[in-house]
């Protein structure tokens, strides 16, 4: 049973780490007084792209999720 709890904790910690990494990449919008972060009155950044989905910055969270999933499968098998 402790193996399952540890696996669940690692999966949740990995998801939280991925969310924190995506949030910490930068501001999602600028201020309302004409900063370069605002485009046409929207809060979407101009040059965000999909680089935040890459493996370079997300590998620790993905590794935690994979290890936690392996522990969950191991705990279910025993």
Short description:
This protein is an all-alpha fold and 78 residues long. Helices cover 58% and strands 0% of the residues.
Describe the structure.
The chain is an all-alpha fold and 78 residues long. It has one domain (2-77). It is 58% helix and 0% strand. The protein is built from 2 helices and no strands. It has helices at residues 2-23, 55-77. α1 (2-23) runs antiparallel to α2. The chain is elongated. The chain crosses the membrane at residues 59-77. Keywords: Membrane, Transmembrane, Transmembrane helix.
Euclidean distance between termini CA atoms: 10 Å
Average pLDDT works out at: 79
Shape: elongated
**Helical percentage:** 55-70%
The number of distinct helices, counting runs of at least 4 residues, comes to 2
Rg, rounded, reads: 18 Å
Beta-strand residue fraction = under 5%
For the biggest sheet, the summary is: none
Domain tally: 1
Q: Which regions have little confidence, pLDDT < 50, spanning 5+ residues?
A: none
The helix/strand series, from N terminus to C terminus, equals HH
Overall strand count? 0
Structural class computed from helices and strand pairing: mainly alpha
